[in-house]
Amino acid sequence: MVVDDHPIWRDGVARDLDDEGFEVVATADGVGSARRRAAAVTPDVVLMDMQLPDGTGADATAAVLEVSPSSRVLVLSASDERDDVLEAVKAGASGYLVKSSSKAELVAAVRAIADGQAVFTPGLAGLVLGEYRRMSAEPDPGHLRPSLTDRETEVLRHVAKGLSAKQIATRLSLSHRTVENHVQATLRKLQLGNRVELTRYAIEHGLDE
Asked: Which of 44-48, 55-59, 78-82 has the weakest average pLDDT?
């Protein structure tokens, strides 16, 4: 699904993705329409603009994931401002590209996001990781770490290193479905909403070392 309030840009991106073999199941021009259409079609990947007429891309990301939690959001925005990037990620976005990216970069990013990876325009990944590390340094004496199995912890370490479920499955000689089951079980135990939050948790607890 493509969410952008500029029809020419929105339709152009949709055509580019269609040409590359993706099925564009819906388009939307704001927070409200994105929520309604995501609920109806449960898209695998959502391309999200940050500037919408009835809210921000972060607002729309949270709204989409509330009604379609299995969707993965890739922000495609003209802005590379720190606050925009961090707000999008905190809302649940799995990646962030600036609109100056090439068609090839966009297509590769959509494929990577669909495969469970996090994708950021060069320079923004370090910004997000730095913010996670800063937050992890803040004391949280009330936090109790839930008990994970050895296998769940092993999978979580690989998630923290940015590997996709398929890559983890290959490294651990497991099936793709088994890895996804471990990821979902870990999300439930930690009461987290998506893989971005899971990656943050893993980094906070030093599992990316």
From this structure: 78-82
